[in-house]
Amino acid sequence: MHMNPTRQPLIRELALILALMLAGVGPATAQSRIGQSGWEGFTGTGSYGKFERCVLYNRSIEALNDSPYDMLGLTRDVSGRVGMLVFYRPRALTRGTGVTARLRLDQHPPVTLTGDVTSDFHIQLLGPLDAKFVEMLRQAKTLEAVTQGQTAKFDLVEPGAVLDALAACVTKHEKQG
Description:
This protein is of the alpha+beta class. Helix content is 27%, strand content 38%. It is built from four helices and ten strands, in the order αβββαβββββαββα. Strands 1-2-3-4-5-8-7-6-9-10 form a ten-stranded antiparallel beta sheet.
């Protein structure tokens, strides 16, 4: 199928808006673009325009525009809570609250967390993630996530630097807010 080239930016913009809305950072709340070690994302505000969190995805914004599937997001909110967003393939999950996810970092024993499946392809584990898990995440090379029998595997690039960038992002934008 041939697509009109003038429509391609619009379609990519809509895909980005959808991904941001699903991650809790809607189009009206996206503040500024941030990045670290190949991870890219945004700052986000709440419904009253007050800064709430920073989020980084394990891909570029351009790649996120192409497909909001099979990706990982890390978040940090103003209270310092670290969270995670795991994106699977389309129609992989059933929406619901209090859904368990089993996460394995490298060869460590799996950790079971509870989150909300807010679309048919992603779960929000907005934490706080356990401090011990976050410390293991800093050094991890791989992450395997299993939700509702669906598995997603990720190679992690400098997760410690990403977590530090999220902390710096929150500090910077909290002072500005």
